[in-house]
Structures are given as C-alpha cells and as structure tokens.
Amino acid sequence: MLTAHKTQNVIVVMIDGLRWQEVFGGADRDLLWTSGRDSLALSRDRAAQAQKLYWRDAATERRQALMPFLWSVVLEHGQIFGNRELGSDSQVTNGLNFSYPGYNETLTGFDDPRIQSNDNVPNPNVTVFEWLNRKPAFAGKVAAFGAWETFNGIFNRERCGFVVNAGYDPLETIPANPELTLLNQQKAETVRIWPDEPFDPLPFHTAVEYLREVKPRLLFLGLNETDGWGHAGFYAEYLNAAHRDDSYLHQLWDLVQSMPEYSGKTTMIVLPDHGRGVGAKWTDHGEKIPESKETWMAFLGPDTPALGERSQAVPVTESQVAATLAALLGEDYHAAVPKAGEAIEDVLGK
Ligand SMILES: [Zn+2]
Fold first, then answer.
1. In this predicted model, what pLDDT tens digit does every residue of 210-263 receive, in sequence order?
2. Looking at CB atoms within 10 Å, which of 57, 94, 103, 320 has the fewest?
3. Cα(178) to centroid of ligand 1, in Å?
C-alpha cells in the first residue's frame, strides 16, 4: 500500500451538506423555480439570476455551469465518486447524517456513538491531522480553517497542537499583513446572519494567507454556507455558495501549482460531511432522512489515476478518507488505528 508516492502535501476541502444531486446533476428544476423562500421579495431577483446562471437542459451542462472547476480540471485529471446513476456510491457510516458526526468520521476514520450533537465541545478522538502533527515530518506543518466555530471542538484546538482558526476568531498566529488585517476586521464587523459561522470568503481567504506564509503540508478548509442556506430554504443562495466554493477550489489549485513547495506534489480532496433530503425535504438532513447519508468525494493530485467520473466503482465511505490522505503522504494510519476505514486504493496509484 505504501509504495512510492509523489504527494508531499494534502489539502482537504469540505463543503457542508452539498448534495451529490447538485454535484452530478446541477441545479434541480423544481427547486430552482418553486423553492418557497426564493419567492420572497428579498430573494426573488436572486432566484431569477440563479435560473439564468445555473439552468441548462442537459445535466452535464448544468453541473458544469454550477461547478466548472470540478467538471473540467478534476474530471480530466482526478476522480469523482458518488454518481448513483453510474453505479458509484459514497456515504457516511455514522447513521446520524449531521455535521459533527460526519466531520469526526471523516477526520478520524471511524464513527463514534458518543458524538450525538453539534455542540462545540472538544472531540475525545484524535483526528488524522493531530496524528500526523505528532510526527516530526509534519509537526507544525498542519493547520485547519473553517467557517463553523465547532471546528474548534472537532479538531480539539486545546489539545491538537496545530493552528485551528474557525468562526469569527481573528487569525493572529502569523505576522499581520494588510490582507490579514482586513480579513480580521471583516470578521469582527460584518453582519452575522449565523452566530456561529461567517460567510465562506472569510475562512477561505484567511486560509490562503496562512498557506502563503507558512506553507503547511496538511491543510483543512471547511466551507459551510451551503448548509446554512440549505436549512434556511434559499435554493438560489445554496447554489451560489456551491458555485463560489468551486471557484475557491480553482483558486487554491492555481495557487499551489504556482508555488515550488506544492507544485506537482499536492493532492486535493473535496467532499461534504453529509447529504440532504430530496424533494421538499432538500433543506434538511439527519437520522430521519435516510438519503442524507449519501455523499460524494473528489480527488485530484499526482498519484491519483485520472479515472474521472467514477462508474461501477467499489463503494466508498467517509470513514476511509483519513487513511487515504495519510497513505497519500506515505503514512499507514489504518495500521495505527485499525478501527479506521481502509485507504481507498483506487486513488493511491501504484
Ligand atoms: Zn446542517
């Protein structure tokens, strides 16, 4: 399993509660025209704009309009799991289908029945990020950024030993520069639609500043607007957030390819923490909405064979992501933590 690999750095981007239905099929016609909240005067213009931006007759064109980076560069050079219509399955195994259990499963490799809420409490488990940070080759070269303040608990900021920056907290652990100063001001001063998470541009651009300055080998970025707009029932904004997050993947990928520390030796992994319901239940997810266990995942990097959109593939689970990212970095997490899911062989290359 741990054969010669080119990957020296891994970037994990999680897009909260973005459904596989939109990832593979683009905007949903019924939701785009009839979603209740979008008919409010407040968002009527945004809904009309979203119809123009994201509606196309063919699903392949719709998904390209929604996530153009995923459906060009990742499709051509990486792998994308989760299109049920092609016989590819990706899911969470925790049975709860909401955020903390999903992030815990993905980042530790196993589901923990003690985790029953989204409360921002310290994770009793050690994530693969913390496990790697304890190794000399990775010490001080691990960092996590996210919109949602509960990432502080999920990564166990007090214990983990690396930078975790989430919620509205300013980033003050690297030297100030004009960009960072402005980002910290924006976190303090912009309207707080959600008390526990700012809009995605703030954690994204903060993570970019950190990456330029510190050049971590393992970076997490958590983007949460998709879930926030989903619960609020604003389909147009949910789509806009997905589209913007795709542009962040593009910007991150272009940035790392321009830096000698990363170029040609960085793998990016993208996935959500859970799915959502279907039809009128698209706004919600959880134990009582069985479809919300359905996810998707994408891999792009120098070791991952360019198999594109996977079809008739072995089913994958979020519990395999921790061992997969470690294996890409040459480390055997599954051997150290046997209850963690096994690495996804198909993306490791030979
Ligand atoms: Zn949610």
1. 999 999 999 999 999 999 999 999 999 999 999 999 999 999 999 999 999 999
2. 57
3. 34
Query: Is 347 buried (19+), middle (13-18) or exposed (0-12) by CB count in 10 A?
Result: buried
**pTM listed for this prediction:** 0.97
CA 171/CA 177 separation, integer angstroms = 11
CA of 121 to the centre of ligand 1 (A): 17
DSSP-assigned letters across all residues of 7-46 = --EEEEEEETT--HHHHHH-S-HHHHHH-GGGGSHHHHHH
Residue 227 alpha carbon to ligand 1 centre in Å: 5
- Cα three-residue angle 12-89-247, rounded to 5 degrees: 35
**331 C-alpha to ligand 1 centroid (Å):** 32
Instruction: Report the C-alpha gap between 185 and 177 in whole angstroms.
Output: 12
Write the CA distances from 227 to 37, 99, 103, 118, 239, integer angstroms.
15, 10, 14, 13, 11
